[in-house]
Write a structure and sequence with these properties.
Layout: H1 7-28, E1 34-43, E2 46-52, H2 60-67, H3 89-101, E3 105-110, E4 115-123, E5 128-136, E6 143-151, H4 162-172, E7 177-181, E8 187-190, H5 213-222, H6 228-235, H7 241-250, H8 265-277, H9 293-304, E9 308-313, E10 317-319, E11 323-333, E12 339-341, E13 344-346, E14 348-353, E15 356-357, H10 366-372, E16 389-397, H11 414-466, H12 470-484, H13 486-495, H14 498-505
Parallel strand pairs: 1-7, 14-16
Antiparallel strand pairs: 1-2, 2-6, 3-4, 3-6, 4-5, 7-8, 9-11, 10-11, 11-16, 12-13, 14-15
Helix pairs in contact: 4-9, 5-8, 10-11, 11-12, 12-13
The structure holds adenosine-5'-triphosphate and magnesium ion (MG).
């Protein structure tokens, strides 16, 4: 359920969990992330993973709960666009280490107030963290370093592997500097390409149209409000006392005066049904944080060195009637864009949800569906699979509707697929302009040089027949060819070397 299926995928999942946590932590503390990742092969199917960041660290009294138990994250119930949500990522890694190697994970952290190291494992039956060998260390760093040994995993430089995950993360997080040491000792460095922090998303209250009966119960049972009425007003955006009266009129047999803790599943279902019938003001859109048009462009240029990039960020929209989301797309062409394969390149789709790369389950994803549904020929891409093109799509939302528990594909909600298509088509139109200009120029250039190759030969032949000065004939012939390909000629004149080159060719 947590993504530990298959050797390559499991290792990528571990790196994903630690790296996302480091990025979230740095963002929360407003520091530009510096992250170091080391993957070491210890034996067949057994690897060590080390991830160190420069974030705020974790106080020793919370470290067990945070990293060695599940469902205890600090981002739970916050309704804010972040990578982590449920509080199962890091604890999941600790469990995975424990059940595949029997070894605890090792943590070093320095918060500015204290610096310590310890071993963490977990009493799986009781979901209780076990913190051992806790000791103070020199506070000569800031942040968190976590190291674990994992079995039943494999490092592979494939499109599902750690390297792919890390470079894609660098692409969608241009404010981060990431260094990866691979098991063969190779060091991949992805330097920071922008020095500004991403805009901090605002924490919002959930909109009533975005939640299910089970969400409502979760919220109700954690609520400190005295009555269902005030719970609804306090916990959700756009819910006023007037709206609650309307809801009460629809869900007649629900007691809105009782404590929220006493809400039953039936009550919650009725309230959610009523939510669907009331007219609501749309949700607050400040909750979204995208990568940013400029940032996508800089990152794609830095990492892929393409001959052309076009980026489009659309306006936020809503799906399921109330959940805001925003789509941004970058298309890179040429250079190292596309998936490189022995001399050529094929089109590649780079999928992201809240800036986190999605490497698995592409078949069921809204992004693949939308990109593959585009008639690329209309945009001068004859065969998507045979051109050096990378299409980056990032969907941001406080609630990404994943199509599975592994969180590797976005469900094919109509509004989301439609919006991705529109964004990709927008970006593709700009690419098409570039490509048709480029291809037109290529065709002209080749026609011109073919004809020009004969000019000096023809001039001297005509000189022999007519007795006229060959230089004068050549000049006139060149002018004639040049008139036809005037744009090109003026460019060559400026560059200077054109005529000489043509003569040598003749
Ligand atoms: N590198 C880190 N620096 C500081 N705090 C961290 C770091 N990693 C984890 N934490 C804290 O530990 C908590 C638990 O992390 P965990 O990955 O289990 O859950 P999450 O990130 O909240 O959600 P998800 O399950 O979706 O990953 C986080 O909410 C955060 O408060
Ligand atoms: Mg996490």
């Amino acid at each position: 359920m947590l993504g530990y299926a298959g050797k390559v995928r499991s290792l990528t999942t571990v790196v994903h969990e630690y790296l996302s946590n480091s990025l979230d932590a740095a963002e929360e503390a407003s520091v530009l992330p510096d992250i170091e990742i080391r993957v070491k092969e210890l034996a067949e199917n057994r690897y060590g993973v080390y991830v160190r960041d420069n974030g705020p660290g974790i106080p020793s009294k919370h470290v067990g709960k945070a990293l060695a138990s599940v469902l205890t994250g600090t981002k739970f119930h916050r309704y804010m666009q972040q990578r982590g949500q449920q509080g199962i990522g890091a604890g999941g890694c600790t469990i995975f280490a424990l059940i595949t190697t029997g070894k605890p994970v090792h943590v070093r952290s320095s918060t500015g107030k204290e610096a310590y190291e310890c071993d963490l494992s977990i009493d799986i039956k009781g979901n209780r963290p076990l913190v051992n060998n806790l000791q103070r260390i020199a506070p000569d760093f800031r942040g968190l370093a976590i190291e674990g040994e994992f079995g039943d995993v494999k490092y592979e430089k494939s499109e599902h592997g750690v390297y792919e995950y890390v470079w894609r993360t660098a692409l969608s997080n241009p404010h981060a500097s990431i260094r990866l040491t691979e098991p063969d000792g190779n060091e991949a460095v992805f330097p920071r390409s922008v020095d500004t922090m991403p805009r901090r998303p605002k924490q919002i209250l959930p909109h009533p149209l975005g939640i299910s009966a089970s969400d409502l119960l979760d919220f109700a049972h954690a609520s400190e409000s005295r009555k269902v009425t005030s719970f609804l007003v306090d916990s959700f955006s756009r819910v006023t006392h007037d709206k609650v009266r309307e809801l009460a009129g629809m869900a007649k047999d629900v007691d809105f005066e009782k404590e929220p803790r006493q809400l039953t599943w039936e009550d919650a279902t009725k309230i959610v049904n009523a939510f669907g019938q009331v007219k609501w003001i749309g949700p607050d859109l400040d909750s979204l944080s995208s990568i940013g048009e400029q940032q996508v462009e800089i990152a794609m240029k830095n990492i892929l060195a393409p001959s052309f990039v076009s980026v489009v960020e659309r306006k936020p929209r809503v799906f399921k009637g109330g959940i805001p989301f925003v789509v941004e797309v970058g298309i890179a062409y040429g250079g190292s864009a596309g998936r490189q394969n022995g001399g050529g390149a094929s089109g590649s789709i780079l999928r992201f949800a809240n800036k986190v790369p999605l490497l698995f389950d592409s078949g069921s994803c809204a992004i693949s569906e939308a990109v593959n549904g585009i008639d690329w020929k209309r945009y001068s891409i004859r065969k998507f699979d045979e051109e050096p093109v990378s299409v980056l799509v990032n969907v941001s939302s406080v609630y990404i509707p994943y199509s599975g528990v592994g969180k590797q594909a976005i469900a094919q909600e109509d509004e989301i697929v439609e919006e991705i298509k529109l964004a990709v088509m927008d970006a593709a139109r700009k690419l098409q302009k570039f490509l048709s200009g480029e291809r037109h120029r290529d065709a002209q250039e080749s026609a011109y040089s073919t004809i020009a190759r004969y000019v000096s030969q023809l001039s001297s032949d005509l000189h022999e027949i007519t007795g006229k000065d060959s230089k004068a004939i050549e000049k006139e012939l060149r002018a004639l060819v040049g008139k036809k390909y005037s744009a090109l000629l003026s460019r060559e004149d400026k560059e200077g070397g054109g005529a000489a080159e043509v003569q040598n060719a003749s």
